[in-house]
Each structure stands twice: as C-alpha cells, then as structure tokens.
Automatic annotation (TrEMBL):
This is Pyridine nucleotide-disulfide oxidoreductase. It holds the Pfam family Pyr_redox_2. It comes from the Bacteria. Signal peptide: none annotated. It comes from Bradyrhizobium macuxiense. The lineage of its organism: Bacteria, Pseudomonadati, Pseudomonadota, Alphaproteobacteria, Hyphomicrobiales.
Length: 401
C-alpha cells in the first residue's frame, strides 16, 4: 500500500508525521504501508516569516525528520494527478518524468498569491509570497542604498491591508533605516480597496492596529485599488499617482493550481471542498488539507483559513485519516475550535487575539514576545528523533492554544 502526499509545507509535513505516527501505533512496517512525500526540495519554507529581513535563512530542513520516521522523500514537482488511474505524474528538476501510483492521496499543495491582470503588475511588483520572491525583494531593498536620495527611492507601497500586508508594511520603516541609514525618512503606504484596515479583525482590534500604523509612520489609502504600475510607481483608481521604487503586492490568496486537476467542487479561492475527515467530496481515495481545502472547523459555521495555524492541524488529521483508511481503523473527525491571531506590528509590538470574534488578549511588547516564540519555535519542524517527531503529530494536540 502507498500513501502519497503532495507538498512539503506545514500541512504536508504534518500529514507525513501523523500518518507515520498511526502506522507506528498499529505496528505496521514501512514496507507494508509506504508513505511518500513529493516536493521540489526536502525543505519547509517558513512562509509566515517571509516579510522579515534575511529571508534566505527562513527555511528548515526536513530530510532528517522524514528519514527518522521512515517517510520516503520523492524529489520533484507534481505535474498531473489522474484520480481514475490513481497516479501522480512527477517532473524532476532535470525535466525527467515519472509516475507514482497511490492507494490514498493527500493534496497539500498550499496556496499562491493572487495576481490579477493589472497593467504593469507582473513587471513592477514584488511580493513575500514565496522564498524566491522574498529574497528578490530583500536584494532590491539593499540595492536602494546605491541610488540617490529621493522620495521615490524612500517610498514603499504595500497593496493589501490584510495580515501579510500589515506585517510587511509595519516592519518596513525600521528595515529601510537599517539599509539606508538611521537618518533615512522612509515613507510606507498601505493601499486597500476596503474602507477599513484589517477588515477581518473586527471593531475591537482595529483601533489598536490603526494606532500602531500611526506609531510606526505607515500611511493608508483605503477604498482605493491599483489601476496600473510602471517604473515610476503606482497609479490608484482614485487617480492618485504615488512615486515609488518599491511596490509590494499582498492582496489575496488562491489555492495552488494543481487542485484544479481534482474533479471536485471548489470554493471561490480554489480550495477543494472536503468532509469532516478531510476527504475530497465525490472523489474516491483523495484527501485535501491546508490551504488546498475548505474544511468546517466546528459545528457553528466557522471554516478553516489560509494560515499555518490551520494547516498544521488539518495536516495532522488528513495524514491520520488517510492512513487509517488503509489500515482499517477508525478515522478522526477534524475540528479546530480554538483560534488565535498574532499580528506583528513592527516597532509598535504585536497584537494577540483569541477566538473567531478576535478578542484582544495582548498588545505591544508582551504580544511581540509571543509572536517571536511562534515564529522561531512553535511553527518549526520537530527534532529529527523518531519518538519525539511522531509524538508531535497527535491530531488532537497539534496547535492547541
């Protein structure tokens, strides 16, 4: 029997750990149930931190962890999925193709930044969506130091007033002063089509976010969208042109394109609809998890978000349940009633909320300390020691906060 997992992000990593955990509990050998993880590199990109400086350091190796738990790593990119013949076509870095059959499949392919067809966007915008994107932005910011001082050089426009946009924007003033000199006067502007910043955070948290933006010197242009970009900056739907050498696109996410190959219903974000065991509806032997899946978190109408907090726990349930079906044991119903947010606000600290209603529990330096612990400890892979790694993936205890 073979369980194939596509993706080495948070959901894919925890799917592998959890499936291996259940296999171990059931006393089944790796020869009887092979668990194979397919990804271009055996590396976890710590994506929630890519708004930070030195993004090239924000990865964690997975090879030793996978080896410790007897998960086979298959290097390459999944190009096609055939759910009828139950096979995944894989393309290696050198362009060779091979087919990998499966008895159960877990789609953990994550998400991608949504880039609409706006004139100039593809040529003139940066992002912190992936590792290479974040590295390109970091290099660009350092190259600004070689340019003459000007308002255009010192202005950064961040498009998107959600979590990613706010974290990128609030960290930018201090980041630019480090690069350009302490006397630099960076100007950072968030552009968002909504009438309020952080629309998902609610009325309780929003005034604190607005105060933090003022504190670190971040301006906003709300109720406006981007009409076009060029070498000189960005033109808004209002007609305003902002001269800027750096435009960062952080407006919206979509499930990775591979999900479109699964013949099943998807939501407006391209996520596959799944049942409470994370099986893809109407497609036999296929599970989806993390940003590739829209799953009910509870019985009162809350659904998973595109976040590592949901991806890790969903991954653990998907891995357990796919393996459980193959081993003939009971599955576990995914649930995630607990939900927190911890929003980095740069030199203004951070904001920690609990619950879907975003009740504020910590602000400022106290919340910043928690954010650092989340970013540097909690979201990293377990150590490459078999017992500890397997123990970390109990679905009922992953990301309990």
């Amino acid at each position: 029997m073979r369980l194939v997992i596509i993706g080495a992000g948070f959901a894919g990593m925890y799917a592998a750990l959890s499936a291996a955990r259940l296999r171990d509990i059931q006393g089944v050998s790796p020869e009887e149930l092979e668990i194979a993880l397919v990804a271009p590199e055996p590396t976890l990109v710590v994506r929630p931190r890519l708004y930070e400086p030195k993004p090239e350091t924000l990865t964690a190796p997975l090879q030793d962890v996978l080896k410790a738990i007897d998960v086979v790593y298959v290097q390459g990119s999944a190009e096609t999925v055939d759910t009828k013949s139950r096979a995944v076509q894989i393309v290696t870095a050198k362009g060779a193709k091979k087919s990998l059959s499966y008895d159960r499949l877990i789609v953990a392919t994550g998400s991608r930044l949504f880039r609409p067809n706006i004139p100039g966007l593809a040529d003139h915008a940066f992002s912190v969506d992936g590792l290479n994107d974040a590295i390109a932005l970091d290099r660009h910011l350092h190259q600004l130091a070689s340019l003459p001082i000007s308002e255009m050089r010192d202005t950064v426009v961040v498009v998107g007033g959600g979590f990613t946009g706010i974290e990128a924007a609030t960290g930018m003033p201090s980041r630019l002063r480090t690069i350009l000199g302490k006397d630099a006067k960076p100007r950072v502007i968030i552009v968002d089509r909504n009438e309020a910043i952080a629309p998902d955070m609610g009325a309780g948290a929003r005034p604190l976010i607005e105060a933090a933006l003022r504190n670190v010197g971040v301006e906003t242009r709300l109720g406006a969208s981007v009409a076009s970009l060029d070498n000189s900056g960005v033109t808004l739907s209002s007609g305003e042109h902002i001269e800027s050498a750096t435009v960062i696109w952080a407006a919206g996410m979509r499930a990775a394109p591979l999900t479109a190959q699964i013949p099943a219903e998807r939501d407006s974000f391209g996520r596959l609809l799944v049942d409470r065991d994370l099986r893809v509806l109407s497609v036999d032997r296929v599970f989806a998890t993390g940003d590739a899946a829209r799953a009910a978190c509870d019985n009162v109408g809350n659904y998973s978000l595109m976040s590592c907090q949901h991806a890790t726990r969903m991954g653990a349930f998907a891995g357990n349940n796919a393996a459980a079906e193959l081993l003939g044991v009971a599955t576990r119903r995914y649930h995630q009633e607990a939900y927190v947010t911890c929003l980095d606000l740069g030199e203004a600290g951070a904001l920690f909320t609990r619950g879907w209603e975003r009740k504020v529990e910590m602000v400022g330096d106290q919340a910043k300390k928690t954010k650092r612990e989340i970013n540097t400890v909690w979201i990293y892979p377990p150590r490459a020691e078999r017992a500890a790694a397997l123990a970390s993936a109990d679905p009922e205890h992953v990301t309990e906060v």
